[in-house]
Design brief:
Elements lengths: L1 H17 L2 E9 L2 E8 L1 E3 L3 E5 L11 H5 L5 E4 L3 E4 L2 E7 L2 E2 L4 H9 L8 E5 L13 E6 L4 E2 L3 E12 L3 E14 L3 E24 L2 E27 L2 E22 L2 E23 L6 E19 L4 E23 L4 E19 L2 E21 L2 E18 L7 E17 L2 E12 L3 H4 L11 E3 L8 E12 L3 E21 L2 E24 L1 H12 L9 E12 L8 E12 L3 E10 L4 E2 L2 E3 L6 E10 L4 E8 L7 E5 L4 E7 L3 E9 L9 E2 L17
Parallel strand pairs: 7-10, 25-28
Antiparallel strand pairs: 1-2, 3-4, 4-9, 5-6, 6-7, 7-8, 9-10, 11-39, 12-13, 12-38, 13-14, 14-15, 14-37, 15-16, 16-17, 17-18, 18-19, 19-20, 20-21, 21-22, 22-23, 23-24, 24-26, 26-27, 27-28, 28-29, 29-30, 30-31, 31-34, 32-33, 33-36, 34-35, 35-38, 36-37
C-alpha cells in the first residue's frame, strides 16, 4: 500500500512540472531573465483558482458560458449556482453582487469572459468573510496588473449560432492603465451585443395522458455596457484606492407561446443599471505582517421589467425594484509568536440593505436588513501542521412590509465558529479538514413578490416575502497534490433551506420559494491529471523529460458524486463527469476539448434529472502571434447539440424542459499594445484589492 501511494504521489509530482501553465510575464534585467508562471488551476487550502485570461476554452464567450465549463460547478435555472455541492454566493472583485436568479444570469450573460482575469472559488470561507456567505463564495476577478507606463489591451469576440436562423454575438473591450510617481489609474470599458434563443416546454402526464401546458419560443437580444475605473494614491507606506463601476443591461425578448387554452405573442423588456463605488484606505507598517484596512462600499441596483401582449396591444406586467447596499468594514492583522509562528486577524463590519419593489407603480414590498459583525481568527503552524481557529459574531435586524401585511421580523444575535487542520506531507501535498457554520439570508429575488420572468396564462413566478434565513453547518476533508490532483468529501447541512416549489393546480403551474426544515448535501469528488507521454514514453522516460508547461499533452479527469437528502423523500444521487484534454498541434497551435456529463435519475434539490444536465462537447484552437502580443482562438461549443435541461419536480406530474442555442462557433482575440520599456515595474491590481490575498495558511 505504501509503494502504491508513493507511485501516485510520484505521478502527481511529474504532472506538477508539466501541468497546463502559461507564462505570466518575463522581466529582462540586462543579461538576467526572470519568468513567472501562472497556473491554469491552483489548489489552495481554502480555495480553488481558475485562470480565465489565458484559457481560450473558458474566455471565448460570456462569463456565464465560461463558468458552466468549470469542473464541479452546476448552474441551473431551478436551483442557482453550486460548486461541489455547496451553494455559491457571487462576488465580483472581492465585493458581493447581492443579486441572484435571473438578474444574476442576465448580468453574467452580458459580460464577456475575456474581461475576466481569474475565478476564485472559496470553498472554506473563514471568519473574516461575512457569515452570510453561506456554503461557499465564487469571486470573479476582472482586474489586471498596473504598470509604470501607459499600457493598453484590446479584446474582442464574434460568435454565431445557427438554429432556426443565424444569430450573432459581439463583444469589445479596452483596458487602459498607467502609473506615475503621484498616482496610478485604470479604466476598463466594454460592450456586448448578444442574440440568443430559448425554447421551453412544460407538460403534465396524468393517467398516461400528456397535456401541453406551455410551449414557448423566445427570441432574445441582450445589450450590455460596462465601465470599471480605479485610482490609487501612494501616501508613503499607506495607500488610498478609489473604485467606481457601472453596468447597464438593456434586454429585449419576443416570445411566442401556446398551451392548454391559450395562444400568446408577448414582448418583454428588462432594464438594469448597477453602480458600485468603493473607497479603501490601507495602513501599512514597518512590520510587513501588520496590516490595517478601512473600506467603504456603496452599491445600487435599479431594475425594471415590462411584459406586453402583442396580440391585445396591452401591458401585462410593469414591475420595478430599487436596491441600495451600504457596507463599512475594518480589518487588522499581525504576526503572532505562537508555536512555530502565527497570525491574528480581527475586524468589524456594518452593512445596510434596503429593497423596494413596485407593481405598476404601487409599492408591495419594502424590506430592510442591517448586519453588525465582528470576528477574531488565529492561525498557527507547528512542524508539518497548520491550524486555523476563528469565530464571527453577527447581529441581524430584518424588517419590512408588503402592501397588505408586515413581514415576520428577524432579530437575532448569532455566533459562527470555524476551524481548520492541515497536515503537509511535503511541498504542495497536504491533507485538510475543515468546519464552519454559516447563515444564508433569503435573496431579494426570492423575497420579491413581483415576477421579473416571462409568464403566461398557465405559468407564473413569484417570490415569498415571508422567507426565513438558512443556517448551514459545513464539513470538508480533502487530500490535494500539486494543485491538479485531489480527493475530497464535503457535507453541508442546511436548516430551514430555501428551495423553489412547483405547484400544479389543474392546468396552472406556479413557481414559488419556500423554506424546508432541512437539506443535506453529500459530495464526493476526485480529480486526476494524466499526461499522454506516460503511454508513449513510459514512467521512466517521463521522469527524465524536461517539460515546458506550454508543451505538454494531457487529459484532466474530474468526477463527483452528489446526493441531496430532503425530509420524507427517498432521494437518489447523481454522478458528474468533466474531461478536459489539451493537445499541442504543429505550428504551436493548442487544441483543447472539454466534455461534461451528468447522470439521470438523481435528485437535484426537489427535482429529478430526466436528461443529462449540461451535457456538452466543446472545442477550441488557439495560437499566439507577434511575440505573444496577439492571441487568437477559434471555438466550437456544444458540438453535439446535447446541452439542455429536463427536470421533474418531485411530487408532481409536471415535466420542465428548456433548451438554449448553445451550439455556437466563433473567434476571440486579445491584443496587447507593445511597449519599449522592458524594465517597467508591475504594481498590484487597482480594480480589485482583496482583503485576503493568501490561502489562509501561513507561509514563509
Amino acid at each position: 500500500m505504501r509503494n502504491f501511494f508513493f507511485c501516485i504521489v510520484l505521478l502527481f509530482s511529474i504532472f506538477s512540472i508539466s501541468a497546463q501553465e502559461t507564462p505570466k510575464k518575463t522581466t529582462e534585467l540586462t543579461e538576467v531573465s526572470i519568468t513567472k508562471e501562472k497556473k491554469a488551476v491552483e489548489q489552495k487550502a481554502d480555495r480553488t483558482i481558475f485562470d480565465f485570461a489565458s484559457q481560450s476554452h473558458l474566455n471565448s464567450g460570456s462569463v456565464l458560458e465560461g463558468l458552466k465549463k468549470l469542473p464541479g460547478l452546476i448552474l441551473s435555472d431551478v436551483a442557482g449556482m453550486m460548486y461541489q455541492g455547496k451553494q455559491l454566493d457571487v462576488y465580483m472583485d472581492g465585493r458581493p453582487l447581492n443579486i441572484s436568479s435571473n438578474e444574476l444570469n442576465a448580468f453574467l450573460e452580458g459580460m464577456p469572459a475575456n474581461a475576466v482575469e481569474r475565478i476564485e472559488v472559496i470553498t472554506q470561507p473563514g471568519a473574516e468573510f461575512p457569515a452570510t456567505s453561506g456554503g461557499a463564495i465564487i469571486n470573479i476577478i476582472t482586474s489586471k496588473k498596473a504598470k509604470s507606463y501607459l499600457s493598453a489591451t484590446y479584446s474582442a469576440g464574434l460568435n454565431f449560432t445557427t438554429y432556426d436562423k443565424l444569430r450573432s454575438r459581439v463583444n469589445n473591450s479596452l483596458l487602459l492603465s498607467a502609473k506615475n510617481k503621484y498616482f496610478g489609474w485604470q479604466l476598463n470599458v466594454g460592450q456586448s451585443y448578444r442574440e440568443s434563443a430559448l425554447w421551453s416546454n412544460i407538460t403534465k402526464n396524468e393517467n398516461n395522458i400528456v397535456t401541453n401546458l406551455s410551449d414557448t419560443d423566445s427570441d432574445r437580444t441582450t445589450r450590455s455596457y460596462y465601465a470599471k475605473s480605479a485610482l490609487t494614491f501612494d501616501l508613503k507606506k499607506d495607500r488610498l484606492l478609489l473604485n467606481y463601476d457601472v453596468n447597464h443591461n438593456n434586454n429585449d425578448a419576443n416570445t411566442r407561446g401556446s398551451g392548454f387554452g391559450f395562444t400568446s405573442n408577448d414582448a418583454s423588456k428588462t432594464n438594469i443599471i448597477r453602480q458600485d463605488a468603493v473607497a479603501t484606505y490601507q495602513r501599512r507598517f514597518d512590520d510587513k505582517n501588520k496590516k490595517l484596512d478601512f473600506k467603504f462600499n456603496f452599491a445600487r441596483n435599479d431594475n425594471g421589467f415590462n411584459l406586453d401582449s402583442n396580440i391585445f396591444n396591452a401591458p401585462v406586467l410593469n414591475n420595478t425594484y430599487l436596491q441600495d447596499y451600504l457596507n463599512f468594514n475594518i480589518d487588522y492583522s499581525q504576526g503572532l509568536n505562537i508555536l512555530d509562528k502565527g497570525k491574528i486577524s480581527v475586524g468589524t463590519l456594518i452593512d445596510d440593505l434596503s429593497f423596494e419593489a413596485k407593481n405598476s407603480g404601487v409599492t408591495n414590498l419594502d424590506y430592510t436588513r442591517r448586519t453588525t459583525a465582528g470576528y477574531l481568527e488565529l492561525q498557527s503552524t507547528y512542524k508539518k501542521f497548520d491550524f486555523i481557529l476563528g469565530g464571527r459574531a453577527e447581529d441581524y435586524t430584518i424588517a419590512g412590509k408588503t402592501n397588505t401585511t408586515d413581514l415576520i421580523p428577524f432579530k437575532q444575535f448569532r455566533f459562527f465558529p470555524n476551524a481548520s487542520l492541515q497536515y503537509n506531507f511535503g511541498p504542495q501535498i497536504f491533507f485538510n479538514a475543515n468546519y464552519n457554520k454559516k447563515i444564508s439570508l433569503p435573496s431579494t429575488s426570492s423575497l420579491n413578490p413581483n415576477n421579473t420572468n416571462y409568464q403566461n396564462q398557465n405559468v407564473s413566478y413569484s417570490g415569498n416575502p415571508q422567507l426565513q434565513p438558512t443556517i448551514l453547518d459545513n464539513y470538508e476533508v480533502k487530500i490535494s497534490a500539486f494543485d491538479y490532483a485531489f480527493l475530497g468529501y464535503n457535507l453541508s447541512v442546511a436548516k430551514n433551506k430555501v428551495i423553489n416549489e412547483v405547484i400544479l393546480n389543474n392546468n396552472s403551474v406556479s413557481n414559488n420559494s419556500i423554506n424546508v426544515s432541512e437539506l443535506k448535501i453529500h459530495n464526493f469528488n476526485f480529480a486526476f491529471p494524466l499526461p499522454y507521454m506516460l503511454f508513449t514514453k513510459g514512467l521512466k522516460e517521463t521522469l527524465k523529460f524536461d517539460v515546458n508547461p506550454d508543451k505538454i499533452n494531457f487529459l484532466y479527469i474530474y468526477t463527483s458524486y452528489q446526493i441531496h437528502q430532503l425530509p420524507d423523500l427517498d432521494t437518489k444521487g447523481f454522478w458528474m463527469f468533466n474531461l478536459m484534454s489539451q493537445i499541442l498541434l504543429p505550428k504551436e497551435i493548442k487544441f483543447v476539448a472539454t466534455y461534461n456529463y451528468t447522470t439521470t435519475g438523481g435528485n437535484y434539490f426537489n427535482y429529478v434529472f430526466k436528461k443529462p444536465y449540461g451535457s456538452s462537447l466543446d472545442m477550441s484552437f488557439s495560437k499566439k502571434f507577434m511575440k505573444d502580443q496577439l492571441s487568437v482562438s477559434l471555438n466550437f461549443d456544444d458540438v453535439l447539440n446535447t446541452s439542455k435541461q429536463e427536470f421533474n419536480p418531485v411530487g408532481t406530474t409536471v415535466l420542465l424542459e428548456s433548451k438554449y442555442d448553445t451550439r455556437r462557433f466563433g473567434f476571440t482575440l486579445n491584443y496587447k499594445i507593445p511597449t519599449k520599456n522592458k524594465l517597467a515595474k508591475e504594481d498590484p491590481n487597482l480594480l480589485n484589492k482583496e482583503k485576503k490575498e493568501d490561502s489562509g495558511i501561513i507561509t514563509n
